[in-house]
Amino acid sequence: MTTLARHHRRVLLTSWMLLVGLMAGCGSQRTTVPFALGTVVRNLTYCGSQRLDLYIPSKAGAHTLPVAVYVHGGGMSSGDKSDLNPVFRDALSTAGYAVASIDYRLAPAARFPAQIEDVKCAIRYLRARSTALGLNPADIVAFGTSVGGQLVALAALTGTSSTWATDQYPTEPSSLVAVTDMFGPANLTQPASGFTPSGIQTAFGRDDRLDLVRASPTHYVAAGAPPILIIQGSADTKVLDSQALELFGDLKAAGDKTELVMVQHMGHMFAQVGSYPIQPSLRQIAQDMVGFFGTYIQSGA
Question: Helices in 61-146 by DSSP H: which ranges?
């Protein structure tokens, strides 16, 4: 074993020792769960009282890991970190990514922008704890489903600004290298976003068009945005495909790097519509996402 390899092994061992200490400090404990590709640490506390699960692949080797943050859907009022689909988790883990599935505050107890504040704070937390967790702070990507897609797109498009910043980990940036937005609402001023009047009232506490503009990824599109992969079901009757097409068109017009995968026979949340299977398949979508992220990260997972 070379001197450099021995040094990397010592660094990783130290990182795991720090991780155990970090868990003890937040009342969590390292737990083995049905995750055949590595180890999962559940309920790490970030940014006050929020929790995240961190999936760490066995193939970590002697280098720090890029990390993919998963943000669940649920209209800003339901869902939790357990909603992470194992097909996506395992595809990323096989490719050498750590995966952080996060909880965030929910409406109506916490109105928007609490949700995006927590998402951006989770990114800063992961950077602040990157040494202890064995992560590469330069290589953080994100993906989300439905409203989670909206939130990761918002995080990407506002990552270098102070928009929705909180006072936790203020020296860490909340920027992202790239994101995958899976059928997320893009322009909340349109009925096609899937937000009903009652859903708007729940999420925002009022029906004010300015709130909807501020919560819309299309409002923040500008040149220089991180690359965004958009996944959309052609048969989605919840978040209509016009939302994906609008965001994709705006990003292209701004000169940003973006791709759109229109999935045939797919409704909302990967539901098959009709007698034909979705195309591309769920596993192919996962591989497309991994390939997209791999184009832009630095560490070569």
Answer: 86-94, 114-128, 130-133
For 73-98, give one letter per residue: b (16+ CB within 10 A) or e. Answer: bbbbbebebebbbeebbbbbbbbbbb
3-state secondary structure of 86: helix
Give the distance from CA 93 to its chain's centroid: 15
Compute the half-sphere exposure of residue 168: CA atoms within 13 Å on the CB side of its CA: 21
Domains of the chain: 3-296 (3.40.50.1820)
> In whole angstroms, what is the distance from residue 235 CA to residue 278 CA?
10
- Asked whether the predicted pLDDT for residue 267 surpasses 50, the reply is yes
Angle at 44 between CA 80 and CA 183, to 5 degrees: 30
pTM of the model: 0.89
Which structure tokens are listed for 27? 């009342």
Residue 255, H or E segment = none
Taking residue 238's Cβ as centre, other Cβ atoms within 10 Å add up to: 18
Residue 12 has pLDDT above 50, yes or no: no
H helix and E strand count, the chain = 9, 8
Phi-psi label, residue 255: left if phi above 0, alpha if psi -120 to 50, beta otherwise: left
- The whole-angstrom separation of Cα 211 and Cα 115 is 14
Backbone angles phi, psi at 118, to 5 degrees: -70, -40
* Percent of residues, the chain, with pLDDT higher than 70: 87
